[in-house]
Amino acid sequence: MKHIEDLSAQILAGQRRALARAITLAESIRADHQRDAQALLDRLAREKRQALRIGLSGTPGVGKSTFIEALGMMLTAQGLKVAVLAVDPSSTRSGGSILGDKTRMERLSRDPNAFIRPSPSGAHLGGVARRSRAVVSLCEAAGFDVILIETVGVGQSETMVAEMSDIFTLLLAPAGGDELQGVKRGIMEIADMILVNKADGDLKPAAIRTVADYAGALRLLRKRAQDPDGFPKAQPVSALHEDGLAQVWQDIQTLVNWRKEHGHWDKTRARQAVHWFEEAVRTGLLARLSEDAGVKTQMQRLAQDVQSGETAPDLAAAALLDGLK
Prior knowledge:
By secondary structure, the protein is of the alpha/beta class. The chain has 14 helices and seven strands. A seven-stranded parallel sheet has the order 3-2-4-1-5-6-7, sandwiched between helices. The protein is globular. The two termini are about 40 Å apart.
């Protein structure tokens, strides 16, 4: 597989076009492309390169793109290479995506130390692209120091981002009233940092109050073994005026260094690898089932029974699974 060897060498040398081609290969649904992507990832994994993976989530309109651009510009100014994986939601009808993040991050997209790759979410719930983890591995192999993984919305599937990140950050807007009801407990339990954006101008007092509310809520959660004192934490930032970003980066480095010194970094990476192995097995099994002609026929027949009301959905599913034993 000479072309895989050549592509691997080009990626390890940090060539942007080669990285873009490899990502397209990894995101393809063609069977031959998937085989090539797996061979490429296996070859690159031997280099054992690592980057700091930061997952970012937040509701639309909270200012994720502005925050990522401001943080990215600050990091590239320090000489760090930054990759941004911005996942746009796909239409459930047409399957299309706008992929506008590169346009919104105009300054960062022109920075020679930055690489922005917008990707459609595909069929995955919550905006996590089907091959996001493969793309993260490719960016690590290409020599990037920091990888920012942006996902759309705050929901149950944001745990998928946490499972491919070293630091998971939740970005929120200033709110009034009972704003804690707007975020599920599960999201707060996996967040390492809660950042209240738009802490400037008339919104600054509301932002400070919101930070206090979340800081109080975080103190009520059970302490996690992978956190030093003071984490997880909530703090205000203004991406527009670039206020608080230096403190955010300092806190991230403090948390990362502590986890490495106490063995949590390696344990988390190992656990995540097992998680994605199990996910790959589940996905592969489902794909093989969907390609089996007999299973397809039985599913169509049971689907008709469910549609007519003759059989309950759970009972039909149980009948199908029992037939596979």
